[in-house]
Amino acid sequence: MGEKTRSLYSEKAKQALESQPLQKGLTGLQDRFGKGAVKYWRNMEDPGKRDRVKKSRMESFAGLDTILAQLASNIRKRGGHVHFAGDGQEAIDCALEIARRNGVRSVVKGKSMLSMEINIDQALEQDGIEVVETDLGEYIVQLAQQQPSHIIAPCIHLDRNDIGELFAEKLGIDYTDDPPSLTMAARKALREKLLNADMGITGCNLACAETGHISLVSNEGNIRMATTMPKIHVAFMGMERVAPTFEEHRETLELLVRAATQQPLSTYVSFIGGPAGEDDPDGPEEFHLIIIDNGRSKILASPEFREVLACIRCGACLNVCPVYGKIGGHAYNSTYCGPIGAVITPLLSGVNEHADLCKGETLCGACLDVCPVKNDLPRMLSELRYTLAYGSNRWNVRQHNVRESYIFTGWQLVVTSSFIYRSLIRLARLIQRPFTSKKNGMVRTLGGLARGWTDTRDLQPIARQTFGEIWKEKYADTPETAGVAVHHAAGSEPDPGRQPQQPEPVARDYSENSVDPLPLLEILKENAANQNISVHSAASYTETVDIIVELVRTKDPEFSHNKHIVLHDHPDLNRLRLWKKFNREAVTVHTTFASDKEVRAKTGESFIGITAPSYCIAESATLVQLTSPGCPRSTSLVPSIHIAVVRKDNVVATLKDAYDLLGTKKIPDSFVFITGPSKTADIEAHLVHGAHGPRELHLIVVGEPALPDQGEESLAATGQQSKTDQ
């Protein structure tokens, strides 16, 4: 590592230690998420899941070319475009060509570390294209012209006062340090950008080769906006971020969300496999997936480091690392920080150039304990240190410090000779005396090469006696300890290869034969309350209408004075005949007919969106919303209030049940899991609902069964129109 880079690491680490907002934020983050993840893994009902996902990830690398080919083929069948980029510049060139061909002048971005890795923002801006980060934390650091300092919490180094002053300067609002007010100011500023952008750029949390989808995980709703409203969607994906099957995708997704934020599921999990269809009233006209290598093939070919590609970018290792917990993310001077950054950054960008990253970690093993896929980062950090100590032609590493290697060679000689070791201990006790403070008995300062050890701390002096000397003096010759041997009963000798017995997982049988519908609904209500979802029970569709009417009458629009509501053209909602109910009131009802080219505009002016999700998952209170021509994406996203109407017989117990049911259907090009209203905690971990998507989510569970098939016609088919079109 050059002197400039090394001094930058030390300088930024010192700045971090002196930053009170950062230290407060890091402590809170590690107390909440770090300890929470460790506790969850210790008590999880299926302790084998982490091992299964790790095995799946590693085995998929053996046939990664075939898996990626399957993913590309399935996406192309859905009308999407797939591009392969060997390095960052190829990916940038591909994105620029797409933007130029479509006359793109404005881009909104969802959080994507890969886009930061290749520095796409600068390339787009140099081409005259406006680029706006839409994740609240990323938006804040973009306004401040800084870099994110955490994978999940980008602006953890800024407190509410910093953000209040920043918004007053950049957004022209009156100063406030109130997190909800600051969040609403950002919501208003970003909403215009999201609704009118030409292109949306996202990353990819995890793709599924079997179905031909990418999936994107978020809480705020900005990623859904960025993939729904612009006419072009470009997704960047690292070549390793793919699961072969739908089932493997489910288990990996569950680990990702738990490790990242301690939630059963994030608010939104979006699945995208292609552009909008000809009859879809919203969604992008083009979908492009750019699969990027950028050094990953070299890592894949390395037995020592291949394991790091199993990382699912949850950020859990940052939340337990004692080093990151003090110096934060900026000291790493890299897109990736914390223990994962200390491994992946040197491998992608140069080991010598980023030597301080892999040398700065403690190897305490906390990152291994908390990693959802049990990546052995301490082992890989040791491997990187070995390449620095001795050089490596494969990784183009020159020997980092010849003098240091001589010192450790000498140290090896010392610790392998008891005579030399004990002699040096005695000598060191004499040498330390001039440096030891009489006031507190600590070593205050050292000279020469050892000076760095005491620049920022005092050291304990070498003890007057070693443990061995104390033991020999007090106990070695006593009858109680002399000649003691350990005996084992016959057949009870310890087996060094035996694994400790694991506790049996708690059985949870959610099958239809074992769970009565009423308890399942009680489970749903309990979990919905945890996700800030209001649950209403309706015995019939008549009661459902009454509930909706009451909500419409008591709620006020956020962005206008007119009450517009929009609902899906779905058989269950068509039974409500809401346009008749509001015929004499100042409420305009829109239905999302596939043939209506004005659906996007009508949805934008509506303050309530009503949908009929295909399923509702009780264990997490999650809605499964499939996209179809009469059921577009934006109805559950753009309005301030989302009302979901679900029949009781469409409530399933677990995420696995939902995946199994989806596996029996022709999966649409786009669908989404929704777990609660939009939310963010980017400003001092203060939870605020309504970051970008709906501020409220109301779930109406209807006991009345579905209509016979002959009654399930859309309003468009029967000639019915919305109130405004009559």
UniProtKB/TrEMBL annotation:
Entries under Pfam families matching the protein: Fer4_8, LUD_dom
Region Disordered: start-end pairs: 1-21, 488-512
The keyword Transport belongs to this UniProt entry's keyword annotation: yes
Gene3D superfamilies with a match to the protein in the record: Alpha-helical ferredoxin (1.10.1060.10), NagB/RpiA/CoA transferase-like (3.40.50.10420)
Cross-referenced InterPro entries: 4Fe4S_Fe-S-bd, 4Fe4S_Fe_S_CS, FTHF_cligase-like_sf, Helical_ferredxn, LUD_dom, LutB/LldF, NagB/RpiA_transferase-like
GO biological process: lactate metabolic process
Keyword terms of this UniProt record: 4Fe-4S, Electron transport, Iron, Iron-sulfur, Metal-binding, Repeat, Transport
TM region(s), chain numbering: none
Coiled-coil annotated spans: none
PANTHER family found in the cross-reference section: LACTATE UTILIZATION PROTEIN B
Protein name: Iron-sulfur cluster-binding protein
Species, as recorded: Desulforhopalus singaporensis
Lineage, uppermost ranks: Bacteria, Pseudomonadati, Thermodesulfobacteriota, Desulfobulbia, Desulfobulbales
